[in-house]
Amino acid sequence: MPDLDPVRHNRDAWDRLVERGDQWTVPVSSEVIARARAGDWSVVLIGHEPQPRHWFPESLVGVDILALASGGGQQAPVLAAAGARVTVFDNSPRQLARDREVAERDGLDLATVLGDMRDLSAFADGSFDLVFHPVSNLFCPDLEPVWRECFRVLRPGGSLLAGFLNPDLYVFDRDSEDNRGELVVRHALPYSDLTHLSDEERVRLNGPHGALEYSHTMTDQIGGQMAAGFHLVGFVEAPHHSGVTRQYMPGYFATRAVKPRA
Ligand SMILES: C[S@@+](CC[C@H](N)C(=O)[O-])C[C@H]1O[C@@H](n2cnc3c(N)ncnc32)[C@H](O)[C@@H]1O
Prior knowledge:
Elements: H1 6-19, H2 30-37, E1 64-68, H3 75-81, E2 85-90, H4 93-106, E3 110-114, E4 128-133, H5 144-153, E5 154-165, H6 174-180, H7 193-196, H8 199-206, H9 218-228, E6 231-238, E7 252-258
Parallel strand pairs: 1-2, 1-4, 2-3, 4-5
Antiparallel strand pairs: 5-7, 6-7
S-adenosylmethionine (SAM) binds at residues 7, 10, 14, 24, 44, 69-72, 74-75, 90-92, 95, 116-117, 134-136, 139-140.
């Protein structure tokens, strides 16, 4: 499928996932927002468990946060209710609409911006204190521009919290794993839906409108952040939220990286 535009394709894919009520598109309740307003808040960066609070500033009041590729009305409204000034940036109009739904429902101030995570030119240098980037770069073909842009839009001393999939998950044949619960090593890494599957197999496994995925490498993920200028100060892992691999290996990693003061 040589003329496929991966950003446009995944925009359509995520808009459709919103229609289908996928778990990463279901907004938080008013009760969660009320608790966050009262100071009792948590957000998920990887898997289903709340990210430890010490990765965030002690108080979020007045903190400028970019919720990067983080649509769906989940984390951004909670951070806003806790006092942060939040901008959600996402490639799916319908995912952003979910954030606006929560903001309107619960009277929160929240900005939404549509775009590709590799191009944050909508924001001036040094616009944010924190970039919150949950597991979403598996949908992005290349990471170097993402880390470079995150570094640029952060203020000195600001931090990037990034979640991502364990790239090793992609060595396994998906059909055997999903349909027979077997882990069969098949793909050389780094994996891409566009290069490792035929069009026919990709459409059979993902459906014609399924989101395109890329495994990346640990060098892309961690080396890439360091190459952009970040200092890595935190690293955690978690099992995948579903599937056979969770018995054997981490499914997710998360990094906390700081843009050094000059
Ligand atoms: C698994 S969801 C993550 C959001 C969710 N709130 C969470 O808890 O992790 C992945 C998100 O990445 C977004 N996305 C995919 N490709 C993107 C791109 N190139 N630029 C910006 N956002 C993108 C999707 O639209 C989707 O909202």
